[in-house]
Amino acid sequence: MSRTAPSRSVKPVRHRPTLADVARLANVSVATASKALNRTDRVSASTQRAIVAAAQQLGYRKSTESASASSTHRRQRSGLVGLITSDYNGRFALPMLTGAETTLGASNHAALLMSSHGRPALERSHIDRLAAHGVDGLIVVGNTTNPRPPLDPKTTMGLPVIYAYDPSRDPADCSIICDNVGAGAQAIEYLLSLGRRYIAIIAGPEDFQAAKDRARGAWRTFTLYDFRPIAVLFDAWSEEWGERAAQLLIEQHPHLDAIYCLSDEIARGAVRGLMAAGKRVPQDVAVVGHDNWFVFAANAHPTLTTFDNNIPMLGKMAARYLLDALAGRPHHGVFTVECPMVVRESTDPDRRTPLESTGRIFSRQSS
Amino acid sequence: MSRTAPSRSVKPVRHRPTLADVARLANVSVATASKALNRTDRVSASTQRAIVAAAQQLGYRKSTESASASSTHRRQRSGLVGLITSDYNGRFALPMLTGAETTLGASNHAALLMSSHGRPALERSHIDRLAAHGVDGLIVVGNTTNPRPPLDPKTTMGLPVIYAYDPSRDPADCSIICDNVGAGAQAIEYLLSLGRRYIAIIAGPEDFQAAKDRARGAWRTFTLYDFRPIAVLFDAWSEEWGERAAQLLIEQHPHLDAIYCLSDEIARGAVRGLMAAGKRVPQDVAVVGHDNWFVFAANAHPTLTTFDNNIPMLGKMAARYLLDALAGRPHHGVFTVECPMVVRESTDPDRRTPLESTGRIFSRQSS
Q1: Which keywords belong to this entry (chains A, B) (predicted)?
Q2: Model confidence at B357, in pLDDT bands (50, 70, 90)?
Q3: The domain defined by B19-73 carries CATH number 1.10.260
Q4: pLDDT in tens, B55-91
Q5: Percent composition of chain B: helix, strand, coil (DSSP 3-state, to 5)
Q6: Comparison of pLDDT for B51 and B198, the residue scoring more
Q7: Which residues of chain A does B113 touch, with a Cβ-Cβ cutoff of 8 Å?
Q8: Suppose A99 and one of A140, A236, A302, A316 were both cysteines; which one would form an S-S bond, judging by CB atoms 3.0 to 4.6 Å apart?
């Protein structure tokens, strides 16, 4: 009943075994299987062994893959790229789409966005639709910063995938994220350079990667200069929490002279709490936020010094790396985009207009 | 050289004339041309004459249209609907997409979103791409509330189109918008019911339809009860303007006891201006906003009474009307979706949790 006679396989399968079959049997991504079989030293020895065993069991031969890979490359290109977002309010998805379109447009591609609301079943069904309509590749846009499970190779059917904002848990995939560790490190560097010595951190929920990473970056700078924060408080991404936390801090630490808030919402609440207690911002207490969510940061009173998530740049990078993958030059690992600091009145009373943000990127492999 | 012999035409054309040709010659939309030729009494007599003349000039025959229309209906359906948004930050586009998907998903359709940044050339090129990939229809999502030029029939190629948030200028098209007039009327009704008598309006820029409509609705209620606002100030959609306007109002109108702000950003600024001047909100001055932009309205201090733009419901309605058009039952005109009022602390000091929003819709033809 087998349609093609297996040539040298130990155990015949009903169709010519593909790299995806090997990946499925070894329970790894296609990218990982490819790397293992190409011996790129990017997978652990035990994973390598499991993949090679799976390939032998299925009678997979690399020539099969080459044929299939080149048929993929010969596949009629549609010039369309699918973005799948789990974002509800569009704060990440639209700037990401805009950035991606800038890069894609320059090579005559266009982007289509579909919304999965973070529901895996809907995500799969959207990808099926996009694949059926011939998209050339996928960008998966998150909204939490938390690592997510990689897409099943059965779902992506060999389409190249870039993960943006929320990285894939599989380091062999290509993920583009904000450099939250770098932002945290720079925030404390900046506050120390202003002469502030009694610095507290008001964070969001502890189970968000962004909260962990920004706090970790801050800690790195504290350690470097042999300082310690006077307090690190985790709770919620809300103004209410920022206000409550600021009140707690003032009661317990009268010398408090700076707060690094891990979101602009928290920062606005903190400013309110400080002002209600008769503190001047920034003269008595300097406040730094994160997100550069314009409606919050630039409309605040005082306006907020903050870090820009640089989402359009994430979209551009994701698109560029996807085009590279389509051209046969895939990237593997987690790449970061710098969050430029935007200085406003909450740390600098004379700063009426924000510093030009540099928009520089640096990327590094953290796999 | 004509490929098909014109049967009874006065002036032969190179292809069999279609309804789109007639519409183009008469400089109207296909929908308007259809209505004129079907004598539905929905177009003015002069437009009707122009369209009939164009049809005669081209030798257009209705049988041609029926054939073409039924071929459109017979066209292989993809189950895909294209959304084109001019929104940059996603505040309107993503909730609209979510609402549309709810309705479309129930009839096994899915939605693809593309971003045009309000650039007509990009909008056209996106529609070309979507049409080439077989979408069944289009939803055009605005972000200003201002009426927009209808899409060129040459661009839409007979695909049904629904305009959402920003209506089409052609009343023969189908547009779904927020009932801003109704929201304005209800805002003043509510403030009067609270016993407030010295009511001011702080508006956004005068050239936004939303500002005009909300102010017009407010004026309608004032007139009904034989009241007048103490001031109506137009300027910008910003917190800074809200704050400045509130300060002006307090200086000039010491009896001021309520402000209807035409956006939540303005309302937040107004609250700040009032509090800085020693006024209590809502005990001395009640404040109402508009948008129910959650991060602004629910995080404010006091939380803001406001009107919800009900964007997911706009998306649902747009999808439903598009499905109707695909089933051969098109709608024509401008339909409104109610903006439910959400009562919070800025008008009601005991209101800790917001009133359940009703989510009711009423739609009416305003063409």
Answers
A1: DNA-binding, Transcription, Transcription regulation
A2: very low
A3: yes
A4: 777 777 654 333 344 444 445 788 999 999 988 777 8
A5: 40, 15, 45
A6: B198
A7: 97, 112-115
A8: A316
**Is domain B180-309 in CATH 3.40.50.2300, yes or no?**
yes
DSSP structure class, residue A170 = -
Which residues are within 8 A (CB) of A49 and not within 5 positions of it... i.e. 6 or more apart?
none
Sign of the CA dihedral running A172, A118, A126, A18: positive
Residue A12, class by beta-carbon neighbours within 10 Å (0-12 exposed, 13-18 middle, 19+ buried)?
middle
CB contact under 8 A, A80 and B295: no
Number of other residues whose CB lies within 10 A of the CB of residue B227? 14
pLDDT, one tens digit per residue, over B193-215 is 999 999 999 999 999 999 999 99
> In what order do the strands lie in the sheet containing A137-141?
A333-337, A174-178, A161-164, A137-141, A80-85, A110-115, B110-115, B80-85, B137-141, B161-164, B174-178, B333-337
What superfamily does domain A180-310 belong to in CATH?
A: Response regulator (3.40.50.2300)
In angstroms, the CA B144 to CA B142 distance is 6
User: B74 vs A121, which has greater pLDDT?
Assistant: A121
Mutation pick from A101, A237, A295, A352 vs chain B, by most beta carbons of B within 10 Å, is: A295
Rounded Cα distance between B50 and A256, Å, is 76
Indicate whether A121 pLDDT > 80. Answer: yes
Secondary structure (DSSP) of A14-80: SS---HHHHHHHHTS-HHHHHHHHTT-S-S-HHHHHHHHHHHHHHT--HHHHHHHHHHHHHSPP-SE
Say if residues A44 and A171 touch (Cβ distance below 8 Å). no
Say if CB B322 and CB B306 are below 8 A apart.
no
Is the domain A77-179+311-337 a CATH 3.60.15.10 member?
A: no
Please tell me which of the candidates B93, B272, B296 has its beta carbon nearest to residue A301: B272
- For A315-341, the DSSP string reads HHHHHHHHHHHHTT----EEEEE---E
User: What pLDDT, in 10s, does the model give residues A267-313?
Assistant: 999 999 999 999 999 999 999 999 998 878 887 889 999 999 999 99
Cβ(A346)–Cβ(A267) below 8 Å:
yes
| Pick from A114, A238, A265: CB nearest B111 | A114
Which residues of chain B are in CATH 1.10.260 domains? Answer: 19-73
Per DSSP, B342 falls in state E
Residues of chain B with CATH 3.40.50.2300: 77-179+311-337, 180-309
CA nearest neighbour of B300 among B279, B270, B340, B262: B270
Say which residue the tokens 């839409």 belong to. B156
pLDDT digits (tens, 9 = 90+) for B290-323: 999 887 888 788 999 999 999 999 999 999 999 9
The predicted structure's pLDDT at residue A298: 84
Residue identified by tokens 């990401």 is A96
| Distance of alpha carbon B337 from alpha carbon B307, whole angstroms | 12
Interface of A with B (CB under 8 A): 78-80, 85, 87-95, 97-98, 101, 110-115, 117, 125-126, 129, 133-134, 238-240, 243, 265, 268-269, 272, 293-296, 299, 301
Pick from B117, B240, B299: CB nearest A265:
B299
Contact B98 A110 (CB under 8 A): no
Helix and strand counts by DSSP (H, E) for chain A: 13, 12
Q: Could you tell me where in chain A the CATH 3.40.50.2300 domains are found?
A: 77-179+311-337, 180-310
Question: Chain A: residue nearest B132 by CA?
Answer: A78
Is residue B164 helix, strand or coil? strand
